[in-house]
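User: Before I run my own analysis I want an independent prediction to cross-check against. Here's the chain; please return only the structure tokens and, at the end, one sentence I can use as a sanity check.
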Amino acid sequence: MNPDREGVSGLLPEQAKRELIAILGDADFKDDPQSLVTHSYDGTAMQQALPDAVVYPRDTAQVSAVMKVLNKHRIPLVTRGSGTNLCGGTVPVNGGVVMVMHRMNRILEIDLENLTAVVQPGLNTKEFSAHAESLGLFYPPDPSSMAVSTIGGNIAENSGGLRGLKYGTTKDYVIGLEAVLASGDIIRTGGKLMKDVAGYDLTKLLVGSEGTLAIITEATLKLIPPPKAKKTMLAMYADLYDAARTVSKIIENRIIPATLEFLDNPTIRVVDDFAKLGLPLDMEAILLIEQDGEPETVERDIARIEEICRGENAARISVAATPEEANKLLAARRSAFTALARLRPTTILEDATVPRSKIADMVLEINRIARKYGVNICTFGHAGDGNLHPTATTDARDLDEVHRVEEAFAEIFEAAIALGGTITGEHGVGIVKAPFLEWKVGAAGIEVMKGIKAAFDPHNLLNPGKMFAKQTRKRVVIQHG
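Assistant: Structure tokens:
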């Protein structure tokens, strides 16, 4: 158990347990050691804490009833889907109850007249995307974890993905929510509307709130017509700045690719060893570029992008000849984290984000900081929107090295902010980024956020210990030598 629980006595009170079983039944309430351990961690390295119980609601009424019991007994709750979170956001640091949403996994409606879908939070992202495509529709958000992640988790973290540059992130497709408050009351926000300015935009507020404000039980999502054609290409560079200038030049030319991804040399080597693509190991950077849309537009854009790449000294350019080849390239990029995880026992992936014009500066800063602390960091990410993923491979058993990795990432976050960026582009704050949040939003911003939290959750029961750190991390002073 976590010794630093706030206001939690430890095991679940027997009366609360009886009340929860009365609501859920024996099959959907678990407090055996195996269930507790299984739900004590997520995808974040070196973060773990045991809950006191795990529950599996089947509908909104059960979620509401459970929350009323927990509110009465002042027991914390953490909601989760598949636990692919990378900021410790679903680790129950204050114990209490973990609510797993997997049994609420249905598509409730596809509205072909309004191009909307109503879904439950436990629905698998890739399954939903595939179902929409089978109906001739398109749901663009595509986090790298989409094969296992859930819509509810995507909404809680405002997940991005490879298509974020052109199509936006999860927040751009959530137009209505049903949610349960800490009191157990049920609210509805938004709906099948493209315009709605009735009061504060609670839908957008709940998207990305990391389970700290309410429990999402239903979502209304916007769908769009699918692109008719797509083409994928690789541009390879011997110089990092040439690759970075290419990114800016493409956007300057009023071309918005569907995908514009970056891999540095260490990542290229690891991904090629994993995916066996025959990538050039002597290149400092690779850009993976995909455009979609009307066939004529795609052809014109790819031709112009190829011209831009050559003008910015691309050493080699390769356009995928078949959809299968294109899918293989995209799958290889999605596998970057998996490939890097093979190198060492512990993999720590972050998501510092900068203006895209500062990508090369940021990668060079990451490399400098890695050398300074004597740690191994590879960098890849969404170049089109400046969202980089510096990824450290280490070993949790080597406490000295882990400390150096933590110090390196603190300096990386500072460098991102100094370049006009942010501490997180898509992974969220959770536990990991909480000490750095004030660096980005300021002390006044933190107080406003705490006020919102108190209005939604006055007893701090929903995902406590996240977002707001007990102590802000002291900022480092970056000196360039």
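Sanity check: Residues 274 and 342 are 9 Å apart (CA to CA).
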